[in-house]
Amino acid sequence: MSKELTKQIIAIMEREMSDIGGFIVKKQCMLIGSDPNDIEPADLPKLASQLSEVMRTFGGYEKARIIYSEIKKLENLDKVAEGEKSEEKRNKMLEDLGMTCIFAAEWDKAFDYFNKLLGAARAANDNIQISRYLQKLGFIHQERSEFDQALNYYENALEAAEDAKDMRSIGESCNLIGGIYWNKGNYQKATQHLEKAIEYALKAEDMKILGSAHIGLGNIHSDIHETKEAITHYQNALKYLKDTNEVYEISRAYNNLGDTYLQLGEWQKALEQFEKCKEYGEKGGWLNMMAWAEFNSSEALIHLGKMDLAKSNLDRSLDMLKKIGDRVGLGGIYQNYGRLYAVQKDWLKMSEYYRKAVEIFMEINHPISLAMTYEEFGIALKNKGDCEEAKVELRRAANLYLYLELETQLKRILKEIEGC
Q1: Rounded to 5°, angle at Cα 375 from 370 and 378
Q2: For residue 14, with 0-12 CB atoms within 10 Å meaning exposed, 13-18 middle and 19 or more buried, which class applies?
Q3: pLDDT per position as a tens digit, 293-315
Q4: What is the pLDDT of residues 231-283, one digit of tens each?
Q5: What is the CATH number of domain 326-420?
Q6: DSSP state of 19
Q7: How many distinct helices (H) and strands (E) make up the chain?
Q8: Domain-by-domain residue ranges, the chain?
Q9: Is 83 helix (H, G, I), strand (E, B) or coil?
Q10: What ranges in 165-226 are assigned the alpha helix state H?
Q11: CA atoms of 281 and 346, how far apart (whole Å)
Q12: Separation of alpha carbons 103 and 71, rounded Å
C-alpha cells in the first residue's frame, strides 16, 4: 500500500510540476527523514506541509491548495494524526497540518489546528509551547497583512516566553514583534525589539534569530538612508548565518545588502550581491528570492545604461512574482518599471507603473515603501517639467514621512517642493 501511495504522490507532483515533480517529492522526503521510495501514511502530514510550501513558492497559494487537496484525497490526514499514540508526535503532525493550511491559504482551518494545540498547551501549563503556538497564530495574521492582530498574538507569545524564562522563545518573539513594527513604520519600537531579540538570541546561541534580527535592523537603517549602519547589520547577519542551512535568510541578507549598495550608487557591488542572492535562492528553491534578485538588479542596470537587460529582468521577475502572489515584490517591480520608463522619458508608462506600485503599497499598508514611491514619482514628474503634479506626489510623501517621524526624509522632500 505504501509503495502505491508513493506512486500516487509522485503522479500528483508530476502533473503540477512536469518532469521535476518526482525529484521534488524525493528531495522533500529526504529532508523530513522518510523513505522517498516507500512513503507511509504517517509521513503525510509533514510531507504535505513541505510540498505545500514548495508549491506556494513556485505557484502561490492556489498551487499549494491543489497539492494539499490532492493529498487529502489519498488519506484522511486528521485521522492519521489522531491515530498517532505518541502525544508529542501527534502534536507535531497537527502543527504540520496547520502550516500546510497556511501555505494553502486555508486560514480558518489553520486557526483550528493551532488553537487546538494552544488549548492543549495551556491545559498542560507549558509556556514554551503556548508561546510557540501564539507565534503561529500571529503568523497567520501576518501572512494576511493583518499587522495589528499579528502584533497582539506576538506580544502574548512574548509574555508566555518570559514566564517560561526561555531565552530562545523570548528572542524569537521579539524578532517577530520587531518585524511587525517595521512593517507599520514604527522604527523606534522595531529597533527596541530587534535589539532585545539579539540579546536573547546570543544567550540562546540561536544563529537563525541572530541573523534575522540583524537583517531587520539593517532594513530599518536602510529605510532611513543610514547606509553604513545597514551594511554592518547585513554583514553581521551573514556572519551568523554562514554556517547554517538557512539559505532563505542568507539569500535575503544578500538581497538587502545589494539594495543598500544601490542607495550608495555602487552599481557593480550591488549586482554582485544580487548574484549571491540568486545563487542561494536557487540552492534552496526559493523562487521569490530569485525574482527579487532579478528585479532589484534592474535598477543597477538602468543606471549602467543597460536598458534592454534591465527590462528583460523585470519581465521575468514579474511573471514569477505574479505566480507566487508576492505583493511586496510586485510593488517593487512596478516601482522599477517606473524608474526605467522615467529614464526613457516614456512619461505615460512611467505614471502607469508608479501608480500601480502606489496601489499595491496602499493595499498592504506598507507606509515607508509608499512614501518612497510617492517621492520617486514626484521627482520624476519634476524632471518631466510637470511641477504642479510633482508637488501633489511630493506632498503625499512628505505627509507620510511626517507620520513616520523621519525628519531627514521630510527635510529632503520639503527642499524638493521648494525647488518646484
Answers
A1: 125
A2: middle
A3: 998 999 999 999 999 999 999 99
A4: 999 999 999 999 898 998 999 999 999 999 999 999 999 999 999 999 998 88
A5: 1.25.40.10
A6: G
A7: 21, 0
A8: 1-123, 326-420
A9: coil
A10: 167-184, 187-204, 207-223
A11: 33
A12: 14
